[in-house]
Design brief:
heterodimer; A: alpha/beta; 5-stranded parallel sheet; 8 helices; B: about 250 residues; alpha/beta; two-stranded antiparallel ribbon; about 25% helix; globular
Chain lengths: ~300, ~250
């Protein structure tokens, strides 16, 4: 039984989520191969070969994979699938986009957002925004899995020395083409990989105030910035900062929630954080029921004060 | 152009579900059911495309028990022209739904299929992509903007780190993200009108689809509870705790 991990990368660099997915693949009790489907992605393939626990890197290099279009990457994975019992993707925007296409073609059920693995065919996954945990058993020979990366520690990124095998690539689909990307360039850590996250809610009142209050604190802590859905809906923060059931699932060492009341859907995205700090002036805010340290205060004075005190 | 929209009846998003004491599932007896919020966005988008003249007919589809008729009526009150209920009391997993929808795509030949990106009950995020694969259609998932012109859809997608725009040839499958639109409020006259719109009921066997289970649920449990910690009086005390007790800064 061998597992195939689909690497997430931007051709130059491997994304951290790949490391957590490797750990999950190893828990399926098998050898782990990793597919790097990209364009001029030799650096990403080299990085994958260094991951501890990876037995082989399969490199599929074609312009068709330059932007990770689901049609093309899924076809490549399906072409390789015969050799594998488990096919694992990180549960990121990219992994979630591609994995179900693979599962459907293989006529296998997909197990989404797996948080724990019990043996080769039994998995835990959250349902109802994390308000319940289902233990499911796969009934198909092949298991297509997306891995909730906060559920698994990252594999060591260096120290391994897997062989890299270059393979023939599938043709590009003519039905889908990449047009453009507007990716936010930021020196901050990625939300899903950050050790510290400072997150702002609707109480911030405007995008100007969101930036003015939250950025200095994030700078001081070297933290990623997150936001509640209410803050995103109100236009105070970009959607890709959203933490919650419909946004990113995070589990940093320290999560500071400022002006976030703590709706169920937000808690679903951050309640596995190691230490949670809540700053809110409403003593009844549900966020206090999950916070290790609650500070009942006006965020407009407390957050700048905290920034200064650090 | 015809648009097919898939809608799912789920526990209302405001309801906090409880796990059954025998761990066989969550208790959904006597709780409020509604249309999956992402599907509501899908219906709204289809109606806006029709209002802009990009579409001529909107067909809403729901798969599940007879009560899904309510969900279809809601879709028709938002503006769908007719409904198809694929009626079954069997448990439906995403791949089974994708196969039912594929059969309807073959029959109805829509130019565009719009679905919510995920249902808020099983949180799977699979059906749209599976349908696209089975029907050999291109997909544009997690859409925040959809433009249709000259046999193509140009779709802006929510991806990690920002936005991405792709162009897909029609027919295509689009799945909706939150910021695509804000669904309109359903008005009473439209609810009344929706009651008179045509609704067809078919069975999975009428569509030639045998329902299969791909997974079995062994048990459903409560998540580990996180207990509330302490309140600190001021920022100084907070910093002190983070440094000496939690040791995270």
């Amino acid at each position: 039984m061998t597992a195939l991990v689909i690497a997430e990368h931007d051709n130059a660099r491997l994304k951290g989520t790949t490391l957590n997915t490797v750990t999950a693949a190893l828990a399926c009790g098998s050898d782990v191969h990793i597919l790097v489907a990209g364009h001029n992605a030799s650096d990403a393939a080299e990085a994958a070969a260094g991951i501890v626990g990876v037995a082989k890197v399969i490199r599929a290099d074609s312009e068709a994979f330059a932007h990770g279009l689901a049609e093309n990457v899924a076809a490549q994975v399906v072409a390789l699938a015969g050799d594998y019992s488990h096919i694992l993707f990180p549960a990121t925007a990219s992994g979630k986009n591609i994995a179900p296409r693979v599962a459907a073609v293989l006529d296998a059920g997909q197990i989404s957002e797996v948080t724990k693995i019990h043996g080769t065919d039994t998995f835990e996954r959250p349902i109802y925004a994390g308000n319940a945990i289902a233990t499911v058993q796969s009934l198909t020979e092949k298991n297509v899995i997306t891995v909730r990366t906060t559920g698994f520690d990252p594999a060591a990124a260096t120290g391994g020395s897997a062989a890299i095998e270059q393979i023939a690539t599938v043709p590009a689909s003519s039905k889908s083409t990449f047009v453009s990307a507007e990716l936010v360039k930021s020196d901050r850590p990625e939300l899903t990989a950050a050790k510290v996250i400072v997150s702002g809610g609707r109480a911030l009142g405007s995008s100007e105030k969101f930036i003015a209050i939250m950025t200095p604190l994030a700078d001081k802590l070297g933290a990623a910035i997150g936001a509640s859905r209410a803050a995103v809906d109100a236009g105070y923060a970009a959607n890709d900062l959203q933490v919650g059931q419909t946004g990113k699932i995070v589990a940093p060492q320290l999560y500071i929630a400022a002006g976030i009341s703590g709706a169920i859907q937000h808690l679903a995205g951050m309640k596995d954080s190691k230490v949670i700090v809540a700053i809110n002036k409403d003593p009844e805010a549900p966020i206090f029921s999950v916070a290790d340290y609650g500070l009942e205060a006006d965020l407009f004075t407390a957050v700048p004060e905290l920034t200064k005190a650090l | 152009m015809k648009i097919l929209v898939a809608v799912k009846r789920v526990v209302d998003y405001n309801v906090k579900v409880r796990v059954k004491s025998d761990h066989t599932g969550v208790d959904i007896a006597n709780v409020k059911m509604s249309m999956n919020p992402f599907d509501e966005i899908a219906v709204e988008e289809a109606v806006r495309l029709k209002e802009k003249g990009a579409a001529t007919e909107i067909v809403a589809v729901s798969c599940g028990p007879a009560r899904c008729e309510e969900t279809l009526r809601t879709a028709m009150a938002i503006g769908a022209d007719r409904g198809i209920l694929v009626e079954t009391t069997e448990e439906l997993q995403p791949l089974a739904v994708a196969k039912l929808l594929k059969a309807l795509v073959d029959r109805e030949q829509p130019g565009l299929v719009i679905l919510g990106k995920q249902a808020i009950d099983d949180d799977c995020n699979q059906t749209g992509q599976m349908l696209a694969a089975l029907a050999d259609l291109p997909q544009a998932t997690f859409a925040s903007k959809v433009e249709v012109a000259e046999g193509k859809a140009t779709v802006t997608r929510e991806v990690d780190g920002g936005l991405e725009t792709i162009s897909v040839s029609l027919p295509a499958v689009v799945t909706t993200d939150l910021r695509l639109n804000e669904p309109r409020y359903v008005t009473l006259p439209n609810i009344m009108k929706a009651k008179k719109k045509p609704l067809e009921t078919v069975k999975p066997e009428d569509l030639g689809v045998a329902l299969t289970s791909y997974l079995t649920t062994l048990k459903v449990t409560e998540p580990a509870k996180r207990s509330a910690g302490i309140k600190v009086p001021d920022v100084a005390a907070l910093v002190q705790k983070l440094k000496t007790e939690a040791k995270v800064i």
